[in-house]
Amino acid sequence: METATRIGAAPLAVRARDELARLDAGDRSGEAGAGRPELTPTEARIAELVGGGATNREVAAELFISVKTVEGTLSRVYRKVGVRSRAGLAEPVRRELDAFVDHRLLTVEVEDGRALVGVSHEAVLSGWAPLAQAIRDAAAALRARQTVEQAAADWTQAGRRDAYLWERDRILAATALLATPLPTGRPPPTVARPRLLRRRRTVPANPEHGLPIDDQVPLSPDGAAFLDAGLRRAEAAQRRARRRRTQAFAALSALLALALLAAGIAVAQRQTAVRQQRIATARQLVVQAEAARATDPRAALLLGIAALRLQSSPETQTSLVNTLTTTHYASALTGHKGPVREVAYTPDSSILASASWDMTVRLWNVGQARPRPIGRPLRHTGAVYEVAFTPDGRTLATGNFEDSTRLYSVADPSRPRLLSRLTGRTEWVYAVAFAPNGRSLATGDRDGNVILWDLDKLNDLRDRPLQHACALAGRGLSRDEWSRYVAGLPYQATCPP
Prior knowledge:
The chain has 497 residues and is an alpha+beta fold.
């Protein structure tokens, strides 16, 4: 007791007694009664104070707890130790301490009617790990209190300027140290105890000894006011920061809304400008189409189509309909690379032949809604001036700068076949024409000659070429000629006798 009193560690002795009581509960359970639950450190501390004659209000002030908490804890103590009132607590408390006194770990003395418990030997303070840890925690709390008090004194001397206040993290760290399990006296009434207690609830127990946090190291009014002012300033700073973030978010949201609105207006204006440009261009094309309708129907059609594509309106549609109803233009056949000199239809108007200076004759299928070329061009060695079909439409004659007039079979227009070349005074043929019966052909040349060609014999020659050839030759190949020209095959008479 003397050592504890000398170092000012009487509360630590009480903590030591609580822990030893908990550890020795098993040995004492047989003596105190089998199956009786043991007291917690807080319950034992309250029982000790009440057993020493303290009132509920004095116990609450000593331990910094409410009177209702003291009353509720006493009810549990009564049930555990088997008494009905506070008068019966003195004996149970004495029995709780007997085990430690018998082992000469603690001493008990009575002074002014109150029991004082002390530590018998200094080795207990360092040899018992939980108590040693409690002493270190208490020392840290005392150092923290000294630091807080010094900072509070500087703050008060400087006129309590905010520049001397601590930051929130430092205040919370100091609060955690001040909330170590160190029983203290009654705090001054100016201590901002509720705020510090609220902060203390977030501070866990020391992980090394697991003791619950029940008390605080008291601060002077200036120290408590210093921490309270720091917390208030930190909270105000947090509120200002939240307000600034809210204002910044609102400003950014407003700017974003304005940007989106401006973008929408710009898009709408651009769409309006494009639409107006298309309308103006379509009207201009309508004017040009009407101007070209009489002289260039095809150009008028193209301009009218473009106008209707740009702007579908009654104006553009009416203009295109007028072009279609006032012109006889059907379509354009393109493909020649030079001037076209002559064109000719078959009698059924399904095939059209075109002659050009690009030395080709082209066949066109004009019996469909959209004319298209048929097969490949018929190529010549000079410019072609004239084309004509026979009355049956199966033969085509062409006149050109060559020394012959060509005849083509167009029974299959996709695969025209050259029948013959009419040679003679036919250089630079400018005109060709078939007789209505198709048996003769007339050609006109550069020298002013008109030549008639008998096509009956030509047709017969085309139909029976072998008979005419044998008649003209008078015989076929002899055996000697056969063996010379047709070696390896048996002799065969090529012309009938």
